[in-house]
Amino acid sequence: MSDEQHTKDNRDQELHDALMREQDEPSNGSSPVPIFILFLFAALCFWGGVYLIQYGGHFHKEAYTFDYNPYAEVAVVQVSLFDRGAKIYNAQCSACHQATGLGIAGAFPPLAGSEWVTDHQESLARILINGLNGPIEVAGRQYNGNMPAFGPNGLNLKPLEIAGVLTYIRQSWGNQASEVTEATMVAYMDQYGSRGTPWTAEEVVMDLSAEPESENLAGAVETTLTEAAAAQSVPAEAIAAH
Ligand code: HEC
């Protein structure tokens, strides 16, 4: 090795030694965040946002169902008109007509053994949709009161709910008459829903059209399709309550 080369190597060596030895002095104050961290952070935020939009289920409270199976058959929940009607009867009618259907003598007529309940569906539907006023004879006794309306101008039950409650009173306490279907009630509701005044006993049996056909006496099972997700977690009673 030549002398000259040796000297140059030494100089390099010393320079490196100095650099290695003399680190940055500790200093006061803050230094800016390295720009690449900012970029990394921004990229992470962006990715997180995209992920949430794609897999976040729109933050729906039922989106995370532990054993949800998107391939499951759409479940069929069966609620009979009769069962639906029993609930509605207890909530809307039993205060006056009593849970026994016997009413209160002198004030509220009985539904048990009442010909008004088991006769023509149309007059019964009229009584429910628009209410009933004035003197009436039920099961051989006189009454004179006000039966409230449950149609759109009254307590506003839906056709399915009235169909249920009518089916219930026609098939309870020894009464044996056909069910009243939702379709039948939809038709009556179209016809009488806009009427603003209650019926009288004479009026309510006039101009009846042919009795709709339905022969089911046992309490038909009416089928309701619900979304698969709802059916997996919501019991039938909860749906019937709506
Ligand atoms: C606020 C008390 C009251 C409520 C609530 C009530 N009713 Fe009545 N209901 C009466 C009265 C009073 C009459 C008799 C009206 C008259 O004298 O003209 C009557 C008459 C009837 C009749 C015809 C007569 C008979 O006894 O068969 C039927 C049917 C009837 N109601 C069914 C129902 C059903 C179903 C419900 C619930 C959806 C209901 N009512 C809710 C007071 C009530």
Blueprint of the fold:
Layout: H1 3-21, H2 35-55, E1 76-80, H3 81-92, H4 94-97, H5 115-118, H6 121-130, E2 132-138, E3 141-147, H7 159-170, H8 182-192, E4 221-225, H9 228-233, H10 236-240
Antiparallel strand pairs: 1-4, 2-3
The site of heme C (HEC) has 29 residues, from helix 4, helix 5, helix 6, strand 2 and strand 3.
Describe what is shown at a glance.
The protein is built from ten helices and four strands; from the N terminus they run H-H-E-H-H-H-H-E-E-H-H-E-H-H. The chain has 242 residues and is mainly alpha-helical.
What descriptive keywords fit this protein?
43% helix; 242 residues; two-stranded antiparallel ribbon; 2 domains; mainly alpha; two-stranded antiparallel sheet
Descriptive notes:
The chain has helices at residues 3-21, 35-55, 81-92, 94-97, 115-118, 121-130, 159-170, 182-192, 228-233, 236-240, and strands at 76-80, 132-138, 141-147, 221-225. The longest helix has 21 residues, at 35-55. Helix 3 (81-92) crosses helix 7 (159-170), helix 6 (121-130) packs across helix 8 (182-192) and helix 7 crosses helix 8 (182-192). A hairpin with a 2-residue loop joins strand 2 (132-138) and strand 3 (141-147). It starts with a helix and ends with a helix. It is rod-shaped and about 140 Å long. The protein has two domains: 32-64; 76-209 and 218-236, Cytochrome Bc1 Complex, Chain D, domain 2, CATH 1.10.760. It is mainly alpha-helical and 242 residues long. The strands form two sheets. Strands 1-4 form a two-stranded antiparallel ribbon. It has a two-stranded antiparallel sheet with strand order 2-3. Bound molecules: heme C. The site of heme C (HEC) has 29 residues, from helix 4, helix 5, helix 6, strand 2 and strand 3.
